[in-house]
């Protein structure tokens, strides 16, 4: 994996830098909650501005149709406070209208401009290959005005969005410092994990967890996987245990029961590597935590809210003996006080161990904040969820692949010298890609052409070749004598010399 970084670009003064960061934030009322990811990206913005770059920030907030799908005005205000820099903001439903592009052209060294929510553009999230995204509205408008594209959003690298994979196709590109740190920590857990290696998987996204489990178990990366949360409940059912009716209904409503067969297969093959809870917390009649053992949990009229104390103790002992620990997702519904103890116990164990510890996922980070557990007690607390999990599962991330391709195309030199524009690079890919598409499209046509060629040549060729040439009629006569498949019969006879050699 070879990526350009900002270290490769010593002279940024006066250069227009497109900076992709992830400012997607939670809201409390009308106020955004700027988390750790926001803080780290603010450092990158300040760094580029200090070096005299003209910084154009690309970011998004929410999804269309969601309550948190808003403009980035409040994000600009938050960046101002965090960086102590005046951050310009262009309110623009088109994102790259002529008015906004004029602001980009007018930037001076050290100035910063935040464009509006990228997801105002429908094409941003469309499922297009990189070469198509490079011809999109966003890239076509901004790339000719820029000298360098910097991706600092590892948390978005598993998405093949226009702002992630389009720019590296046509513009010199680099990984930002936040992305660098994320990749370094993730590679250490994936490729240099010391054993015993333990995964703690919780939360409410079983699909991601299953992909990671399959990869880690198959490649013998992990020695124990401690399962809780939704994935733990599913594994209990897959093992033949019953769960409370409300819990099962919730799993059904979320569409999670479809993973049972896959989990059953994993449990059958790797049962000795998997640990599931054997006692649980439900909310008692008095609103206090009630402990119920596995053998009686199916009788509960209340849903499972957390792992029980005995499970938490066992999991903690396994964690303390590990040399590498990766934790993704809380074991229980920690947001509610009645269900917070299991998550707190496990996080404390991960914090205390001397192992290399990597904590990932937004909910895990939120749990650390809620329980007042210092981030510096862990080797690394990732700012990413899905991207980190897919990376650990051995998948290629579109955003990282795009940066690698850009490095190969532009080398480690400063890309501005070639005055990078979309057209020259797009033309190369426009030439290459259709060729691939033609091969895929021609394959069935060749098969169709082969069938008539077997029927028609006898009639058509006989008429043409008899009149026009003398050499071909012989071939026609031979074809008539051995009508079925003349070409196949000769190769069979030609195989006899091999027998003589033996």
Order of strands in the sheet with the most strands?
Answer: 5-6-4-1-7-8
What is the count of structural domains?
3
Q: What's the gyration radius in Å?
A: 30 Å
Summarize model confidence as the mean pLDDT. 86
Low-pLDDT ranges:
416-484, 486-496, 498-502
CATH evolutionary superfamily of the largest domain: Phosphoglycerate kinase, N-terminal domain
Based on Cα principal axes, name the global outline.
Answer: elongated
Annotation, overall tally of beta strands = 17
User: Oligomeric form of this entry?
Assistant: single chain
CATH topology of the largest domain: Rossmann fold
CATH architecture assignment of the largest domain: 3-Layer(aba) Sandwich
Approximate strand percentage = 5-15%
Which class do the helix and strand fractions yield?
alpha/beta
The number of helices is: 21
For the sheet with most strands, the description reads: 6 strands, parallel
Assign a percent range to the helix content: 40-55%
Distance between the termini: 49 Å
Supply the CATH class of the largest domain.
Alpha Beta
Could you outline the blueprint of secondary structure elements for this entry?
Layout lengths: L15 E5 L5 E3 L2 E3 L2 H15 L3 E5 L14 H11 L3 E3 L8 H8 L6 E3 L15 H4 L3 H6 L5 E4 L10 H5 L6 E3 L1 H15 L5 E5 L4 H13 L5 E4 L1 H10 L6 H9 L6 H11 L3 E2 L3 E5 L5 E5 L12 E2 L1 H12 L3 E5 L12 H12 L3 E5 L1 H9 L9 E2 L4 H7 L5 H13 L11 H34 L1 H12 L2 H11 L4 H9 L1 H6 L1
Parallel strand pairs: 1-4, 1-7, 4-6, 5-6, 7-8, 9-10, 9-15, 10-11, 15-16, 16-17
Antiparallel strand pairs: 2-3, 12-13, 12-14
Helix pairs in contact: 8-11, 8-15, 9-11, 12-13, 18-19
